Amino acid sequence: MTSLLIHPEEISKKWIDRLVESKIDCLGIHPVGGYRAHINLEVMLKDMKTEKFRNLLDYALEKGLRIEYEMHCGSYLMPRDLFDTHPEYFRMNEEGTRTSDMNFCVSNKGALKLVAKRARELANSLYKSTHNFYFWLDDKKDSHCHCPECSKYSASDQQMIVMNEILKEIQKDIPDAKLAYLAYFNTSLPPKKIRPDKGIFVEYAPMERDMKKPSSDVPDKEKELQADLLNTFGKTDSKVLEYWYDNSMFSNWTKPPKKYVPDFDLISKSVDYYKSAGFENISSFACYLGEDYEELYGDFGLPVLEFGE
Fold first, then answer.
1. How far apart are CA 187 and CA 229, in angstroms?
2. Could you give the 3-state DSSP secondary structure of residue 109?
3. CATH classification of the domain holding 241
4. Does some domain include residue 194?
5. 240 near 233, Cβ under 8 Å?
6. Measured between alpha carbons, how far is 253 from 215 in angstroms, rounded to an integer?
7. What is the pLDDT along the chain (309 residues), one digit of tens a residue?
């Protein structure tokens, strides 16, 4: 399966037609990440209830696209306003201080129970979603918990604890639900102490690599990491999340967006490499290519065609 991830406010019938013509299988909806990710998610959930938003997604489904939602939601699943009454729910930083800046304490049973409950509610609220869910933790390096109990686990193992708990809760309503483990930044290494439950699949997002080189042009150590991830999680449903069409990255996450020119040769070589490595599904961000982009540079056209093929 191939998919492109687009900011919800950038979705249009033109974008949907572009995906269909480009033989893309899935429309990925990605609220803007960063420190405001939980706020952007709340805005999307509000917009999702409107006729305009639902009509667009219905149109995408009529055209044969699948709908999936991928988002950083640690601060949504653990509301920040609980810090005053339940500081123990929140992570401890390396200085030994509880902080509400990012994520939460994964060894606190009350925190974990609340996160899983809110994840279940979130999964049930996503309009016309497939049963593959992507509830990523917050978008920052070293945002895991350093309390004495959590310190027994790596950032990867901490994420695995959370994802296993969330999946069990979601499956109470959606028995065939599956959930992504995001291999990204501090969680790029596979977990060692906590094994993934059945239904957890890996999503490999190599944000820190050189985007001017094909994905195959990485050190052997990185290829070994990819193999280790696939050995840990299995190849079934495994997914690459790349940045080939991510004009938000190329624009340094600042509007107005820059002019974007895809490197089809690089993309083609990269796709071939990932397929040969054993990844089943391939996707890319495709943000900052909405109507405001076209107002500046004209019709974006169909530069995604090579990726879909």
1. 11
2. helix
3. 3.20.20
4. yes
5. no
6. 22
7. 899 999 999 999 999 998 998 899 999 999 999 889 999 999 999 999 999 999 999 999 999 999 999 999 999 999 999 999 999 999 999 999 999 999 999 999 999 999 999 999 999 999 999 999 999 999 888 899 999 999 999 999 999 999 999 999 999 999 999 999 999 999 999 999 999 999 999 999 998 888 888 888 988 999 999 999 999 999 999 999 999 999 999 999 999 999 998 888 899 999 999 999 999 999 999 999 999 999 999 876 656 666 666
Q: What one-character DSSP code corresponds to residue 187?
A: G
Quote the tokens at residue 118. Answer: 């809110």
Q: Do 42 and 79 meet the contact criterion of CB atoms below 8 Å apart?
A: no
User: Which residues are registered as beta bridge partners of 281?
Assistant: 239
> Do residues 215 and 273 make contact, with C-beta atoms less than 8 angstroms apart?
yes
| 98 DSSP 8-state letter | B
The 3-state DSSP class for residue 272 equals: helix
**At 269, which amino acid appears?**
K
Q: Is residue 108 part of a domain?
A: no
pTM attached to this predicted model: 0.95
Q: What is the number of alpha carbons within 13 Å of residue 215 lying toward its C-beta?
A: 26
Range of the domain at 290: 2-72+113-141+177-308
Q: Which residues contact 295 (CB under 8 A, 6 or more apart)?
A: none
In angstroms, what is the C-alpha Rg of the chain? 19
